[in-house]
Design a protein that fits this description.
By secondary structure, the chain is an all-alpha fold. It is 74% helix and 3% strand. The chain has a two-stranded antiparallel ribbon with strand order 1-2. The two termini are 40 Å apart.
Length: 316
């Protein structure tokens, strides 16, 4: 039992921090610019494919910084030549534009790399168990993922709350005219923020590609769950995104590990499935089967009882 709990705890921690890596960029973009970027998960996919191409030529460690940089450039160009002109037409126009960009990125990826999975793997230098506890071996690469995720959280928190750059960025959101009068280029600040947020999505793709697989549908797999994370955590809250990511990671991992059958509960309560009705439908269902739905159930409950999320300052 202890082995199962430890294994689920570690896997939930890895998956949760992976979600944070992906959602941190979207949280940064929304908190700074008020833009919900539907193409964010596609930029995550682009990071994985860029890393695959670069690592095949010059190795994983070069891909680790080059791929996010390239994705950041793509995001900055997307803001400069697209969103900047669409922004004045409101949020609906932004959503439609970013949805179109997501579709375009997916088609370009399939055109260049094909529709099948590509062989993108972790570096050989990290192919060993980091430690073994209660018979559970924890891979060094997953430890590397945890380290990168924690460093991203600490780095973003320090930059936004303790640095002069973070103060200028936050002031540019609430008082853009005053910031411009002080000599700062507000459009350039917005473009750089969007580029950094996109680069964080690309970094998540670089890190997650070897573990979750690199294929054209990888953006769809995590695309919707990222929005669940930022809504539960609170729109624009980095701390909320961090806690919500860990919560969802643990929730899904333990749901799969425990694999509780509802038939056990019904038998204990003395309920029979009958010939029809909801009990008959639930009788053969396990918690593991409902695992993918649990984050969305949590989202519904959050919207009912606390619409602003865990640490948000405004309702959704």
């Amino acid at each position: 039992m202890s082995q199962l709990i430890l294994s689920s705890l570690l896997n939930g921690l890895v998956y949760g921090l992976l979600l944070f890596m992906l959602s941190s960029g979207l949280t940064l973009i929304f908190s700074m610019m008020g833009v919900l970027n539907f193409a964010h998960a596609s930029l995550y996919m682009l990071g994985a494919y860029f890393a695959y191409g670069i690592s095949a030529k010059i190795g994983f460690w070069n891909a680790l910084w080059m791929a996010p940089l390239l994705v950041g450039v793509v995001g900055a160009l997307m803001e400069r030549y697209g969103l900047r002109h669409v922004h004045k037409h409101g949020h609906v126009a932004e959503l439609i534009f970013t949805f179109g960009v997501a579709y375009l990125i997916e088609e370009v990826v399939q055109l260049i790399w094909g529709k099948s999975n590509v062989e993108y793997r972790e570096p050989e230098s990290l192919m060993f168990p980091l430690f073994s506890f209660f018979g559970v071996e924890f891979p060094a690469y997953k430890g590397f993922m945890l380290l990168v995720s924690v460093l991203i959280f600490i780095g973003l928190l320090m930059v936004l709350t303790r640095s002069r750059v973070g103060l200028i960025i936050q002031a540019a959101i609430t008082h853009p005219n005053q910031v411009a009068m002080l000599g700062h280029n507000v459009p350039l600040i917005f473009m750089l923020v969007f580029g950094v947020g996109s680069a964080l999505a690309g970094l998540a793709g670089v890190i997650a590609g070897p573990v979750l697989g690199t294929f054209p549908g990888m953006a769809v797999v995590l695309g919707s769950i990222v929005f669940v994370v930022i809504v539960i955590g609170g729109l624009g809250s980095l701390k909320g995104a961090f806690i919500a990511s860990l919560l969802i990671g643990m929730l899904q991992t333990f749901a799969v590990a425990i694999n509780f059958q509802f038939s056990t509960l019904f038998n204990a309560l003395g309920l029979s499935p009958g010939d029809e009705g909801i009990i008959k439908d639930l009788y053969r269902v396990s918690v593991a089967q409902l695992g993918p739905l649990l984050p969305y159930l949590l989202l519904v409950l959050m919207l009912i009882f606390r619409p602003r999320g865990l640490y948000g300052t405004r309702d959704v």
